[in-house]
Amino acid sequence: MATYQLNINGQRKEVTTDASTPLLWVLRDDLKMTGTKYGCGISVCGACTVHVAGVATRSCVLPVSLIGERPVVTIEAIAQDPVGRVVQDAWVSEDVVQCGYCQSGQIMSAVALLKHTPKPTDANIEESMGGNICRCGTYVRIRQAIKTAARQAK
Amino acid sequence: MRTRAVHLLCAISFLLPAVAFALTQAGQNNAKKPSASVTRSEGLAAWQQVYSVLTHPRCINCHTATNYPQQGDDRRRHFANVVRGPEGKGVPALNCATCHQESNADSTGVPGGHNWNLAPLSMRWQDTNDKPLSNAAVCRALIDRLKNHNLDGPGLLKHHEEEALVHWAWNPGRRADGTMRTPPTITHAQFVEATRRWVEAGTPCP
To answer: SS3 helix, strand, coil % of chain B, rounded to 5?
Structure first.
């Protein structure tokens, strides 16, 4: 066990846990931030996506000991980001969500895409979102919402 | 005083040609002139060892000719629809760094190293059907300075000696099931020594 000082959503958080504990479980179990979802646990589905130093990152395979000083942003704080706010609004206006389980990861990936590529093509969307799986098959609405967000983002 | 000056001038006049000769020899060595101590056949034998490493899954999995990396000893396509991206580091929201960190994450089975990325297409060591290229083709690609970031023989040797992702091949970490990934069949020291002999032989290709 070791103690880690983490920067989560702009706040300093101290957790004492095993070095090998994935960030996902630090968020969910230690910090009670359950917006980030457990899907596969092997970085295949994307449900656990958060931002680490601005990079969309699979928190289920990131040991807490490898985070260091890098700031972490989770779905709980994404509305504080201008692009994140627009994406969430687009998700609502396009009525993307069905069961909703994968959607926090979908939104975190969509925000990462739009921050780097403000006007993505269909190919950009398919490549960037290709690692986020939706069992309900909301892919068409996800793509539409990303396009809507791209139009509305300043 | 005058005698000492004459002696000094004589010494310089003798030394200058020797210094010039030595500098010329050094310049020729830097220009990949074959070393007299390593024959072409010895160089080709050394190349065969180098080739065995370059085409090992730990190396060739990221020297693909396609739009995606591979993984595993069976060199299957990387999962999760990972693609090459414009700089060989994936695409936004699905970068290499989305999973791969600066070091191996043994507890979760994700390999990692500094600047994890795909080699450029100019350094592909397999065809578009994912078959390794012949040792002659890989050799020619490796010494083509238009394809290899303008590295000469010593530059290639330095790359093999120092590049973090080259070193990673001998410290590839554990798979998700806890077993160790397979390193190349020769040690890093043997790989570097084989590269050195191949370079000293003038980087001959089969």
So the answer is: 45, 5, 50
